[in-house]
Amino acid sequence: MHRVQAQLYAEVGEHTQAITEYQAALKQQPKNPDLLEALGDEYRATSRLDSAADAYRQELEIVPANPVAMYNVGSIAIERGDAATGVPLLEAMIKTFPDSPVAEYFLGRGLAASGRYEEAVDWLKRSAAADKDGEIGKRSWYELARVYTRLHRTGDAETAQREYSRLRDQQEKKSAQETQEWRKLAHPDSK
């Protein structure tokens, strides 16, 4: 019952209520990895990254080879500046579940934070290529510009910065166009 209620709350963006229901469900099934993952997702949606990481770590203890849990714990560690924890988890995750642009992006960030710049370039280029016009591609180009700067590769840094700027401008233009279209739908008689 609690799980179903939690899922319903999550679907409509009521994350705090979903967390309460997932916690209640976990009292009945404390070793259920699916419930732990869902709880972690809800914590992450409310920017409670420490609580999210705790839920994902518990999931990883139950199912040690779970690539989703490895990604979740690893990416949060990278976001928190803990590359020593995040990089090995993301490397293991990518071996199990290759071709994940978002995991490649976080791995690249973690490698750069660890001073492993050449490896970071490889992973960031892969994530940028896999998500050419998306948010991860844009973020990858931004990180590439930073890494190339650290490597004193000025021309590459400038190219990466231009690509980041192009994608940022493209996304801003698209967002403005969507906003304008919504205004027309909401107020068809206004000019």
UniProtKB/TrEMBL annotation:
<dbReference type="Pfam" id="PF13432">
    <property type="entry name" value="TPR_16"/>
</dbReference>
<dbReference type="InterPro" id="IPR011990">
    <property type="entry name" value="TPR-like_helical_dom_sf"/>
</dbReference>
<dbReference type="InterPro" id="IPR019734">
    <property type="entry name" value="TPR_rpt"/>
</dbReference>
<protein>
    <submittedName>
        <fullName>Tetratricopeptide repeat protein</fullName>
    </submittedName>
</protein>
<dbReference type="InterPro" id="IPR039226">
    <property type="entry name" value="Ski3/TTC37"/>
</dbReference>
<keyword id="KW-0802">TPR repeat</keyword>
<feature type="region of interest" description="Disordered">
    <location>
        <begin position="153"/>
        <end position="191"/>
    </location>
</feature>
<feature type="repeat" description="TPR">
    <location>
        <begin position="33"/>
        <end position="66"/>
    </location>
</feature>
<dbReference type="Pfam" id="PF14559">
    <property type="entry name" value="TPR_19"/>
</dbReference>
<keyword id="KW-0677">Repeat</keyword>
